[in-house]
Amino acid sequence: MALSARNQFKGKVKDVKKGMVMAEVTVEVAPGVDIVAAITTSSVDRLGLAAGKETAVVIKATSVMLDA
Question: What fold does the segment set 7-51 form as a domain?
Fold first, then answer.
């Protein structure tokens, strides 16, 4: 699948915490660097996401806010 989003990171699923509707998926994209995504539990099931699975994180946003 070709995507226009430029912020794409290959990684490995580190942890999946499933709730009733939403899930929190932690993906290690580099040693010591994790990205956490909140997605639906049905998407977790459809994608077969589980610890150890290779995946890609795609970030497409019109704005990102940081505070230091």
Answer: OB fold (Dihydrolipoamide Acetyltransferase, E2P) (2.40.50)
